[in-house]
Amino acid sequence: MRTGTCTATRAATRTARTMWAACAVAVVAVAAAACGGGDGGGGGGDGIVRSSWGDPQNPLEPANTNEVQGGKVLDMVFRGLKRYDPKTGAAQDMVAEKIETSDQQNYTVTIKDGWTFSNGEKVTAKSFVDAWNYGANLDNKQKNAHFFEYIKGYDKVHPTKGQPTAKTLEGLAVKDDRTFTVALKQKFSTWPETLGYNAFAPLPRAFFTDHAAWVKKPIGNGPYQVDSYTRGSVMKLRKWDGYKGPDQAQNNGVDLRVYTDNNTAYTDLQSGNLDLVDDIPAAQLKNVQSDLGDRYINQPAGIIQTLAFPFYDKNWNGPDSDKLRTGISRAINRKQITEQIFEKTRTPATDWTSPVLSEDGGYKSGLCGDACDYDPAAAKKLIAEGGGLPGGRMTITYNSDTGSHRDWVDAVCNSVNNALDKDNACVGNPVGTFADYRNQISDRKMKGPFRAGWQMDYPLIQNFLQPLYYTDASSNDGHWSDRKFDDLVDQANAESEPAKAVTGFQGAENVLAQQMPAIPLWYQNGSAGYSDRLGDVALNQFSVPVYDKIKVS
Fold it and tell me: Which CATH code of 3.90.76.10, 3.40.1160.10, 1.10.10.10, 3.30.70.260 fits the domain covering 82-212?
């Protein structure tokens, strides 16, 4: 889902699934080290959590948000059919009372009674069906439309060429206020497990009747309401007292303050002007334990950092370009970078998923083979056999506002330069904000490899593969395409037995190992630090703070 792994003070996001601008101005004016920022207030005994953040790339429509910072807000404002357990990642029923099937292709969804949106409107089966039809329709240009592709009729509402010949998905039908049916175009045994992703959230009638007003102030059915949002500064969310779900907010609200430099956010945390930073900057990792003690969180998360390539650029899509990309991979000293820069809060990647899946869930250590092993001599040979770096030089593009990306990009380039015995064969290309960075990717403006971190949308191996590498998938930012990979993914999705499905997806992953459309770099831990005002702070398996559980003293 979410592209990027930035945080603002991060974006992906995830990628990751994938944002943000300015240094928060706190109660005390911070010396002119940056710009923008959250407003002063929010301290004291008001019960408000002051957290670092970054501006989302797009307005917060559920089907149009595929990066991390926007996803954080949707996680607070919406509740879908399923929700992923913060500790285990297991998909649990939320608005859904039951989801039934006898053939893994035709599903009947029954929703619980009593759910409403924060404007008082009842959540019904139509709330889901209308939202999904909107998200799938090509005319609405929703980035997450691809998540609806398995529903029958998707090819008519979202054709690969030409205009839609239908406005709604043939496979969706409302039976009554609490029941709707879903017909998929093929068997997909784990489809219900995907329904905790925000693209599948319900929408109120106000979204359709006054869309412009809804975008300015989204209305959802989750434990928080959007109070106000000033781009580049702060989004204020407040507890919705009318929320009837089982996970009511334990605080009065959250102020998400926008930062372009996570070092500034960390400084604000230390000075008492911020309560929560959910991306500890690399420069502070040596000190964070002594600075924060048990108020520092460092735990495995469903995040992988990769380098993607622009396959729309013939320089990176030639007959031997797989050797070129593999050579670059072998030139990267992952172990040294993760130990020296990230203080072992990252682990060298040996496949394209994440260890949080476990082996039963699809993670397979070493699947990348020697293509992910550091070997400067082999790297130099492969790069030469692949035609050499285009023009003798490559740039790695990244957003410089969050995530300490400059540090590791410089280190990756130094590693490549050393392997090639050439200064400046590889250089970093920073883009100031995550939103601008994502826009350049969307506009196909990448001229070389670029940062493509991924934060899982749901804990399935399918989510690490299909959205990123399937032809024309929603987060296939490099626009790589391979028929064999697509066929193996389709076959895996159709398996009714989870173990067989996992084996099928790993077969598709072997295609990635052979062609290297993206270079796996490292698995990322979730990291956070918080003030002594807060209690019960935790990160879920996606590395996102469980905001509704946080208590403020």
Answer: 3.90.76.10
Phi-psi region of 329 (alpha: psi -120 to 50; beta: other; left: phi over 0): alpha
CA atoms within 13 A on the CB side of 30: 27
Which residue is associated with the tokens 């009714």? 496
Residue 506 tokens read as 């790993």
**Residues 516, 328, 354, 360: is their CA dihedral positive or negative?**
positive
Between 169 and 498, name the one with better pLDDT. Answer: 169
State the pLDDT at residue 403.
64
What is the spatial distance between Cα 301 and Cα 290, in angstroms, rounded to a whole number? 23
Q: What share of the chain has pLDDT > 90, as a percent? A: 78
* CATH 3.40.630.30 is right for the domain spanning 301-525: no
The amino acid sitting at 301 is A
28 vs 454 pLDDT, higher one: 454
Q: Among 507, 461, 471, which Cα is nearest to 193's? A: 461
CA 220 to CA 214: how far, in whole Å? Answer: 10
Quick check: 24 pLDDT over 90? no
Domain borders along the chain are 2-74+228-292+528-552, 82-212, 301-525
Per-residue pLDDT at 357 exceeds 70: yes
Does the pLDDT value for residue 282 go beyond 70?
yes
- Tell me which fold the domain 2-74+228-292+528-552 belongs to: D-Maltodextrin-Binding Protein; domain 2 (3.40.190)
DSSP category for residue 282:
G
**pTM score:** 0.78
CA 367 to CA 511: how far, in whole Å?
A: 11
- For the record, the structure tokens of 116 come out as 């409403």
In which residue are the tokens 């607070």 written?
76
At 22, is the pLDDT very low, low, confident or very high (cuts 50, 70, 90)? very low
Please state whether the peptide bond connecting residue 14 to the residue before it is cis, i.e. omega within 30 degrees of 0. yes
Between CA 81 and CA 128 the distance in angstroms is: 9
Spatial contact of 104 and 189, defined as CB atoms under 8 Å apart: yes
**Residue 469, SS3?**
helix
Give the integer Cα–Cα distance in Å for 348 and 243: 42
Distance CA 508, CA 510 (A): 5
Strand partners, 230: 234
Alpha-carbon distance 426 to 418, whole Å? 10
Query: 């350049």: which residue's tokens?
Result: 440
Per-residue pLDDT at 31 exceeds 80? no
Contact, 22 vs 256, CB < 8 A?
Answer: no
364 vs 350: CA distance, rounded Å? 8
Higher pLDDT, 115 or 7: 115
Angstrom distance (rounded) from CA 285 to CA 519: 25
What are the beta bridge partners of residue 325? none
